[in-house]
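#dry-run=false #mode=assembly
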Amino acid sequence: MADKNKRRRADADSDNRPFKSKLKPDAVILQTLKTLKSSAAASKTLTLSDVGLSSTCREVADLPIDEVQSEIESLAYRIASSILSGEGFSFSVPSRSAANQLYVSELDRIVLKDKSSVRNFGNVSTVRKATITLRILQLVHQLCTSNIHVTKRDLFYTDVKLFQDQTQSDGVLDDISCIVGCTRSSLNVVAAEKGVVVGRLMFSDNGDMIDCTKMGMGGKAIPPNIDRVGDMQSDALYILLVEKDAAFMRLSEDRFYNRFPCIIVTAKGQPDVATRLFLRKMKMELNLPVLALVDSDPYGLKILSVYGCGSKNMSYDSGNLTTPDIKWLGIRPSDLDKYKIPEQCRLPMTEQDIKTGKDLLEEDFVKKNPAWVEELNLMVKTKQKAEIQALSSFGFQYLSEVYLPLKLQEQDWL
Amino acid sequence: MADKNKRRRADADSDNRPFKSKLKPDAVILQTLKTLKSSAAASKTLTLSDVGLSSTCREVADLPIDEVQSEIESLAYRIASSILSGEGFSFSVPSRSAANQLYVSELDRIVLKDKSSVRNFGNVSTVRKATITLRILQLVHQLCTSNIHVTKRDLFYTDVKLFQDQTQSDGVLDDISCIVGCTRSSLNVVAAEKGVVVGRLMFSDNGDMIDCTKMGMGGKAIPPNIDRVGDMQSDALYILLVEKDAAFMRLSEDRFYNRFPCIIVTAKGQPDVATRLFLRKMKMELNLPVLALVDSDPYGLKILSVYGCGSKNMSYDSGNLTTPDIKWLGIRPSDLDKYKIPEQCRLPMTEQDIKTGKDLLEEDFVKKNPAWVEELNLMVKTKQKAEIQALSSFGFQYLSEVYLPLKLQEQDWL
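#status=ok
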């Protein structure tokens, strides 16, 4: 059988690969990474109160399950006493609309302002939503007492007659996060998992200790419930956040994480909540810098921004979902010429791509970083994009053996 | 912190759950499963030669990398000598068209017949494809010598100028599988991974030993390259093949695999090649019966059929990709009434659903199993479908605590 010890020789074209000769010994590159790591460990993540916004903006927090339960119970007591005093009941629900969102540049993420609306049971226009809210509070309370995790889809199916369609129960679930002041995962409602992780990381998943250096090429599936993830330990110097599965596979098979100690993580495209939470937890607990490897197109940068600054429809939870200070390692628009990516491996941008690129140029989180603006301007100007896989034109292992080591050596991140 | 030992009490409505009272002690159910396991171990998987078709049908095999390499090298010698003798060169390429496919009921899968066509370099209509074929043979040979795995996307990017678009390199790659007579994974070209596995299984992935009982709730990502998977060991009594992620999560969190020893696997929807190969390998090496838990809709049955009989466009590889004798455990159309799934949790079938259902009734692999035909007829007649999650209407853990145990107890699979 074929096994990892059997690689007979490197690609035939090893020596002709562009920039191969520029590579310094690994020890030199490792020194660079150690410096990067200590600077990341020294930087502090700001909170709403640090920037004086804690009274005008709201945020949810990861709460232990007992606290969620008692929060729901005290809400129930308030409702009961309101009813007993002849006043019916209502909820005060934080608004999650765009008008109530704010990008805070000091925090480099989108947060929710403090506008709320009243959801009254005794009003014909809000009675349905108030009923759904109460029902979902009851279901979440049940999740707390039995301490199990379910998906949003499971929740919907417990009372299809009332919820009618899943967007209704999903929306109210987000409302309840804001009302209780906790994250959706604290409510024990989790999203389907998509991400995988491999490399120099150990952590516990639901009580089992996982060693991510011993996960073969497939990696470990990122658990859907972050509250059962703990005990993170690592001797990595950085986290490598990869957009695509194919690049993850290449790096995993080549055990890139052993040559330049790192943790490699991917959500296989659009970041899901579980992967975002996992990345943030790693960054926070291990104090590691995060370097992102995404396609050189507007969506690559967009994906980077979701990890970094959050998505608009979950802005109330941006504090828990976002990972500050992600560096854009590659593939950057300027890399296309710099690394002499052949013309035929570049793709023309579509009208939609160009529009998305121009829209991104208007976004605060891009504008904040002049070097990113410059890269994005270059992309829109040249109207060219390229996938990570375009590097395969120099040999399948060019990514792991030349491009990434050189990027790290040159500290070529923004 | 919340942990698995902290479940304080079962769902409040435990005792009212329908059919809960019908459940016998676990030991009785385990005895049923042991009988199922021994009957699965006794059954033999037929091959083309068993049914006298080995001369008129063709199949590919999993070949070790050295054999793939020497096969390509002897092909190159033949081409060179053909050129030297002044005759140019051509490939004989097995046809993969629908007209060359055959459903063999004894094998219960789709196979490829023996028609071939000539792809001549000296002919203006085939020169392009012959060139692409030669180029991909060269690239695969390079993969053999360095013994690394790449994706189809990587392959495309090595020569965009020639391939023009990925469908062309993908198609020729399948041709090369047929020419060389090996599976696509034997060519070291793998698909992106999607599946996860959890439960009573140990296996090695790229040299690392994986214990799937210690993978928390997230499970282990199924490796993209089956040839680096080995040393499978298990004390499971059956394999539970699950269509959806949410059901997988429920069973994984509840550690269902410890109560009724099994291996739980899902491809999260449409089965990908890696998961299909992995399932087959488990079935073959461990001699375990496979029970499928899919949605009660035409797509659920379609997914089951892809695992069982293969997809049409990869019929040349059906022998390696398919898992024989998968039992349809649930959710079956007859379960909707039997388990009293509330009306509001059933969904009306769309016109397209009904058409897909009727098309399935014409398929050989459905017709072969009269009990399946009956179920499918019922679905099309009632025009109702339901997802696995519909069981959540009886409580989130109804699936793992009542529905599945009862199904196993009653040997209610088809």
